[in-house]
Amino acid sequence: MRRMWSALLAGLLLASGSAAAQAPTRQITGIVTEDGSKAPIGSAQIQVRGTTTGSLTREDGTFSVRVPGGDVTLIVRRLGYPPVEVRVLASQSTVNIVMRKDALKLDQVVITGQATGISRRNLPNSVASISAEQVSKVSSPSVDQALQGKVAGAQISTSTGAPGGGNRVRIRGISSILGSAQPLYVIDGVIVSDVSIGNGINKVTRAAGTAISAVTQEAPVNRISDLNPNDVESMEVLKGSAAAAIYGSKASGGVIIITTKRGQAGKPQFNFRSGLGTGRLAYRNGQRKFQSLADATTAFGPLASQFYDANRFIDYESLAYGNDPLNREATLAVSGGSQDTRYFISGNGRNEEGIVKNTYAKKYGVRVNVDQRLTDRIELQVGTEVLRTLSDRGLFGNDNAGNSIAYTLTKVPSFLDLRQKSDGSWPVNPFYNSNPLHTIDLIKNQEGVWRTISNARLTWDLFASNKQELRFVGYGGTDVLAQHNEVYSPPELQYEPLDGLPGTTAVSDGNNTQANLNLNLVHVWRPFTRLSATSQIGTQYERRKLGVSRSSAQGLLGGLEVVTSGTVRDIDETRLLTEDFGVFGQTELLLNDRLFLTVGARADRSSNNGETGKFYLFPKASASYRLPNLAPGLVDELKLRVAYGETGNQPLYGQKFTPIDLSNIGGLGAFRIGTGRGASDIRPERQREIEAGFDAAILGNKGTLDVTAFQRNISDLLITRTLPPTSGYSSEVSNGAEMKVWGVETSLSVFPIQQTNFSWNTRLNWGMNRSEITSLPVAPFLLGAFQVGAVRIEKGKSATQIIGNDTLPKSPRTLVPQGVLMGDGNPKWNGGWGNEVRFHRFSAFALLDRQQGGMLANGTWRHYDLGQNSRDFDAPGPVAGQSLGNFRRSTYLVVTRIYYQEATYTKLREVTLGYDVPTSIVQKLWGRAQSARLQLSGRNLFWWTNFRGGDPEAQNFGAGNVPDAIQRNRELAAYPSSRTYWLNFNVEF
Amino acid sequence: MRTLHVAALRRVLALSLLSATAIMSACSEVTVPNYNSPNVDGLLNKPDAATVNTTVLGLLVGSRSVVGTYGQTLGIFGREMYNLDQADARFVLSWLLEPLTPGGFGVDIGWSATYRQILTGQTILDIVDKVPDYSTAQKEGVKGFAKTFIALAMVEQLRVRDTFGIVLEVDPTAAKLGPFVTREEGFTRAAALLDEAKVHLAAAGPSFPFALTSGFAGFNTPTNFLRVNRGLKARLETYRSRWQDALTALGESFIATTPATAATLATGVYHVFTTSSGDAVNPMFDPAPRQLVAHPSFLQDAQRRTDGTPDLRTGKIAVSTTTLTSQGISSNQRLNLATTNVASIALIRVEELVLMRAEANVALGNRGPAIQDLNVIRTIAGGLAPLASDFGGNLLDELLYNRRYSLFGEYGHRWVDLRRYARLGTLPRFTPAHRIYPIVPLPADECNQRKPEPRGCVQVSGI
Are strands A703-722 and A660-665 parallel, antiparallel or unpaired? Predict the structure, then answer.
């Protein structure tokens, strides 16, 4: 220890000395090749240690660089390879450099500051990295979906099977009851929006009152899915506060950092990928077979006798969900440039159709990334992406008007024929408000998004010597998105005239713009070879603005879609604006390439806080220590790490206000006190997290094992507690509760076989977490109602416990007044297991994803029972003389758990079979081509679950960043999930 | 060497200046207002006449917001109608088949809206004296109007919770919740508020400072509105069987039987509906029907007119081409209470006042005046033959029949009436498993946060 301090002191003294005298320069030439294959490595960066001079290798791996006289050290860097340092003697003018491929990615640089990074080898936090190859293995509709099963400690679920997705990402369990639970997404330094804007289908379904839109019940697309997964170079998931503290009060849900592909110097290199695919309904609920007319009339009334036919059994799921989609995608990317100017340009198109007719999701995008060296000291990187997304997601989910397609299917008996007649007309459903097949044919729920994400990054080497470097890094960008929705339910649909106003149309326009700017000064100090200190200070400014305006009309004259054709019209508009400012500073010390220490802090201010001028401080500190060659062959290297960090969670816009509702009565304006009480002193939640763990390189550097345990204590928790109505309000926002979340994550990657013609790798990840409310300054309160299962926020209990009605054991039909615990909405654990085998030109990959536990209310099944239409309705029930279906439907209101199930599942998420076409054949077909690959792949091909009613991932209530983070426990009539199949062709030229 | 350092220093300096400027410009504190609505703080701290006038109209919105809830839920409890919504079976399962429980479906029945209404009314009373641009008379008008609507909200909730009692004081901070009081204490307080309102209205000058909707035509001055206030007082006195007080209040109300026409009986104060954005439509309007059907007994029990056709008031239902079926119940008798989605709904009207006068006289044994009033209702509203002036039958039966048919589908009068006269057991049941509830428990949100739990936090199994 004493030696260390003296070394530090010596370093300080040395640093004050002047730089070594400059000598005349000379030229060194050489070649960089890959270990084993001897293939030349192009675009490798050559840097002369202690200087800013360097060069890039050419396509054939050769390079030349001017260096000072005397002995020099060259540092060679190339993505995917650990950096190599080569000493070149004064007498030497040529050098051959060999780089070894980094299968374990130990030397990948991970972002640890606003403008600095550190090699994974020394990283003091658990950060999951996902490479481009892993992201785009199987065509996925969105980047977050592509992460499913690949990140330890992340729960990623798809709330709907509709084309275009709609996902919920939760990293390390719940972190908030009310605030945003979605992670922060940062793309090339731009904080991008993951907003979910409702589509307006509520005007048709009335799932939540008569408002035009109710975002929680519309299974909206979370807008991160606009991004093109094929442009992603790498994704890093900063899971805990310790890693994410650099993002301060925006980061308690974790941070997902996406880096897009950039150009590499050389001749234009093209990559073309195209694919064709299709999908099939993944789960069938089945229907009741009505054995007799008596059964039919009991369920559907006397009218059933006019329609009953003992011999007719129509499979409505096949009719409604039997569309054969033709899915297509194509991506063309080109990269190239000179040493000073490099570019990457890509264009992509993806057209996914749904298993329900007339539903689709289309995506088009163009990205241009340019890196330009302006002077020998200044480098500018710019990038811009224009995205276009189009979708129609049909009519699904909860509804109170009798028109949601999946909901209606639960009420249509198999003996009734609702198929289109030969004259083109549609039969009227005598037993329910709609004919779902007719609805599928005519309903329109279209969404179109234009989005532009632009970023720029300027790196200015202000000063560099052997010992010190000072760098300015400024970056920022904008994310501008405009979403347009059109819902049109034509007057001829059976349910439309029921309210006397046939035809409904709703038009919505949402505009989200956000911009952020970061300015940083980075100072690197290497007093001597064994010590380096990287310090930085910086500021971050961010502004987010969201405006949504909607109009709707009912009673459409002439059946026109335009709102002005309506006899009853409705309009609404909401606006949100947030401005944040943060200051950040940190110092990282790397000693002897073994000990790594970080201290830092961020101070944040936001217009969403009660005190808009106040800075909230979020400090962090971490340490890691490497033990190389611990037990060679078994544990080749062990790194111990411990990290502490604090992050926040901003209040949402408007929570500090107690609003007055605006309404209208007979043409006169009216004010009423609103239903939610705000908090004028509202402040960010504070999450303090400590994580500790180890990373090991094992089995002769053939594998890595990471284990991390964390505990976070969240104070000043934002809660919306349900108030006793006699307060005059129904809910109140406040800070105050405290929650503890702890968990364990581990991941194991092993490359047992790595030969030129045969390789096998296996990756396993696993994570679990538990929460507990440790302090609650108010009385316990319910979110939801007992009858359908509610979350009860209660001191000493899990924040996701689910309480429901139950009867007392010996006195049937007397309710337990306080409800009983039925389970927990949070899964017991999540895990993923991927295996990849390559044999000569063939490769195969499979990824299994498992969730254990997590209670989910089964709404679709309940509605089959209520419609007296479920497949096992007639089976004998537990009560003599009552069928199973009758037992369930007549008991569930007093025994809530009847329709609550564990959402345990194992899904075969991704499967690929690939074949690399031999170069000789490729070039025979097309002289320019360098390589080609054929791939057959599938997503969600098989699943194993006891959950009945649909997809155990589906959720009706809550979506994306809607503040109902902990209420994810209800499935109801979602767009059904499908298995998808793809045939892809990839060619490089 | 030295020059290199100087150059670097210059760069650092230039950059520092740039950064400092950028930081300073970003450093100014940003306050973002609430773009989407005014805030309560603004109302409390700087009230002005325009804002308070608009808030008074909020009381009308609040009062109107529970009309559908009371009419439908209590209407189902009183077997006036069914809700056979095919998308939600709970209107049958929870409101006919299962016990009512605090955590169950739909037991709120106006509870939350009532206290929101009282909070809005109380806020008006708290700030009205601080409004600089009101005259003294105008302040009296605002107070009289607000207190009348607070009292109305209390009485409406007492009809639902009955002996479970209600809370009289709202507590916006929820720190010290108002205590539960008995039904009788609740009536006492509501009566006091109506009487205070009467005094305020008498001192309110010739006009209110706020405009009222067309539903108040004829009752939009303090003097005329006072007569509405008395009608509501009479309703309260009827509920607590203080018959003489009821007659006194009716005498000061807008009761009138001459000329005896349908228009006279329909005179009163109405909730209005429009299809304008932000407004509401008539909640009882269900033309298809999609949810609401009449209980078959309404048509079956109707008295016959001399020509053999049923009581004219059965025109409040109509036969539809659509048959609704939910959980075994089928019906094609739709409600015909509202002919359009903007039809008004009475808050109180002469027809009810006349029935109240008849009821008081029945109770006081004044058979002559009672028969006289009942005959106005029978002949004008029902098209029935009048009772003989020496009618010897059971007048209470006759009164309850006429209240049932005259006030069908409005606020669940039948359920309340049968409870008042301990006749809930006479209500028909579709199957023996169907329940009849005499009272409604408090919603779970009220129960969960009070220790000890109020009396109303129990399961009501029904009879």
Answer: unpaired
